[in-house]
């Protein structure tokens, strides 16, 4: 029997296992496929909400802490596994921001570096970017990671920890219940037991918890992305315009995203999304019109009310915990949300006030 059994091997599940493993706990992590291959693989890797001033304070409290963790986390994983998550901190250029004054006020209140800049500044930073306005916003501290490599590094680190057991291709089909306690789960690899269960199932969390008659208001929201194979250095930093972004990778790959689609668990890609993403990308960086699209893919985000995740014990099942519902910010919030849950699990002083994230009956009723 493990101390903890974690369902879901995305960034949230793997970072939860890392937090608990670092604390000397016996952890079993199960995933119905391969760890890190769902939304954690599909996203762009910007480690900040796209427009943070538009989010509830409960989201930005977590994101500010997480942003500060990523540089050291990436260095740790590189040292321990030899896999570079490619953390880059080259800033973000915001084009066409219609609530720039609100953004600047938000930044001043938090002491966050954000400034209004002109066309000359933008073209000095990114000569190929097309501006439709005479000003933009510049956030120099924004960073990004390469999602698949981060997931690969996390998985490698967990596999090397003797107190952590990874079980992939292990689908959970039910819970083993005794009164108000859940003693384990029924899986395609047989029953697994643990003192406490943690559901980190992303877009699938609500389906899992419905078996315990828990109505978690988390739903799948599809996001399609494309990647251009471009010359190295065509763009150096993240550029965001009208909700669409370009994210550079070290090898010249340029990610463009993303769509927002309420289509259930459908992960297919389509020509309409490809055309829309190409139009957005080439409006930002006209030179992309001559570059080939190398990839198109889709992932399912765990949508939730106001994008505020559920982090904590379930009211009717005191030994079952959830960490899900991060919507577009799973990777962004992962270090902080997993630390906050580990604080609760291990009886530590919480990182921040956990109250806004608890899966209380009032929040669950919103389903």
Low-confidence stretches: none
How much is the average pLDDT? Answer: 96
Could you give the count of β-strands? 16
Distance between the termini: 33 Å
Largest sheet: 8 strands, mixed
SSE succession:
EHEHHEHEHEHEEEEHEEEEHEEEHH
Q: Determine the number of helices (DSSP H or I, runs of at least 4 residues).
A: 10
Q: What would you call the shape?
A: globular
Secondary-structure content class? alpha/beta
State Rg: 21 Å
Beta fraction of the residues? 25-35%
How helical, in percent, are the residues? 25-40%
Question: Describe it for me?
Answer:
The chain has 367 residues and is of the alpha/beta class. 31% of the residues lie in helices and 27% in strands. It contains ten helices and 16 strands. The strands form two sheets. Strands 1, 2, 6, 7, 8, 9, 15 and 16 form an eight-stranded mixed beta sheet that branches. Strand 1, helix 1 and strand 2 form a beta-alpha-beta unit. Helix 1 packs parallel to helix 6, helix 1 packs parallel to helix 9 and helix 3 crosses helix 6. The two termini are 33 Å apart. The mean pLDDT is 96.
Layout of helices and strands, plus pairs?
Elements: E1 2-7, H1 11-22, E2 27-30, H2 39-42, H3 57-81, E3 92-95, H4 100-110, E4 115-118, H5 119-125, E5 135-139, H6 147-159, E6 164-167, E7 172-178, E8 181-187, E9 192-199, H7 205-210, E10 219-229, E11 238-241, E12 244-248, E13 253-257, H8 271-284, E14 293-303, E15 310-314, E16 317-324, H9 330-346, H10 361-364
Helix pairs in contact: 1-6, 1-9, 3-6, 3-9
């Amino acid at each position: 029997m493990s101390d903890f059994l974690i369902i879901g091997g995305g960034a949230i599940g793997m970072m939860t296992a890392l937090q608990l493993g670092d604390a000397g706990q016996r952890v079993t992590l199960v995933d119905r496929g391969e760890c890190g291959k769902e939304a954690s693989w599909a996203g762009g890797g910007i480690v900040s909400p796209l427009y943070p001033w538009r989010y509830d304070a409960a989201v930005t409290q977590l994101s500010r802490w997480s942003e500060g963790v990523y540089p050291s986390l990436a260095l740790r994983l590189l040292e321990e596994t030899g896999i570079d998550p490619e953390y880059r901190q080259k800033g973000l250029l915001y084009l066409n921001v219609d609530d720039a004054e609100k953004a600047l006020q938000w930044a001043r209140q938090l002491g966050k570096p954000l400034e209004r800049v002109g066309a000359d500044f933008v073209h000095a930073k990114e000569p190929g970017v097309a501006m439709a306005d005479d000003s933009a916003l510049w956030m120099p501290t924004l960073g990004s990671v390469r999602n698949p490599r981060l997931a690969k590094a996390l998985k490698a680190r967990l596999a090397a920890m003797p107190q952590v057991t990874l079980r992939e291709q292990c689908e959970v089909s039910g819970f083993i219940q005794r009164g108000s306690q859940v003693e384990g789960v029924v899986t395609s690899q047989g029953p697994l037991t643990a003192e406490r269960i943690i559901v980190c199932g992303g877009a699938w969390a609500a389906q899992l918890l419905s078996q315990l008659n828990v109505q978690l208001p988390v739903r799948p929201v599809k996001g399609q992305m494309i990647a251009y194979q471009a010359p190295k250095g065509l763009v150096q930093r993240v550029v965001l315009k009208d909700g669409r972004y370009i994210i550079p990778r070290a090898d010249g790959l340029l990610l463009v995203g993303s769509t927002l689609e309420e289509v259930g668990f459908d992960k297919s890609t389509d020509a309409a999304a490809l055309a829309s993403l190409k139009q957005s990308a080439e409006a930002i960086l006209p030179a992309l019109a001559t570059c080939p699209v190398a990839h198109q893919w889709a992932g399912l985000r765990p949508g939730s009310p106001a994008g505020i995740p559920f982090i904590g014990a379930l009211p009717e099942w005191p030994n079952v915990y959830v960490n899900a519902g991060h919507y577009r910010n799973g990777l962004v919030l992962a270090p902080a949300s997993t630390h906050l849950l580990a604080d609760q699990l291990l009886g530590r002083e919480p990182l921040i006030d956990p109250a806004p994230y608890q899966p209380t009956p009032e929040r669950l009723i919103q389903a």
